[in-house]
Design goal:
This protein is of the alpha+beta class. The chain has helices spanning about 15-35, 50-60, 60-65; strands at about 5-10, 40, 70, 80-85. The protein has a four-stranded mixed β-sheet with strand order 1-2-4-3, with helices on one face. Strand 1, helix 1 and strand 2 form a beta-alpha-beta unit.
Length: about 90
């Protein structure tokens, strides 16, 4: 993983709903502070409930405005990529 990428593995906290949103917010804050181009979110395959929760978080209006696009990994459906596009001076 390059220094322009960041990874968040949600496996350790999959059953702690209070920590999931906090971890996602922290990852977004770090991505913004470091001007990360891509955030990898590992939700795991499981039942798909964690991935749905992550997608709901990413679909919130306040969150949607912070990233450029979401990519669902075609080889591993338990993983998402959030792409950022930073403007100069931002």
């Amino acid at each position: 993983m390059s220094r322009r990428e960041l990874s968040l593995d949600l496996h350790p906290i999959y059953n702690r709903s209070d920590r999931i949103d906090a971890a996602l917010r922290e990852a977004f804050e770090e991505a913004e502070a470091r001007k990360i181009k891509r955030l990898e979110i590992i939700c795991g395959k499981g039942s798909g409930a964690l991935k749905k929760r992550v997608l709901r978080f990413l679909d919130r209006k306040d969150v949607r405005s912070k990233y450029h696009r979401i990519e669902k990994d075609s080889d591993n459906w338990g993983r998402l990529f959030v792409h950022f596009r930073w403007k100069r001076g931002q």
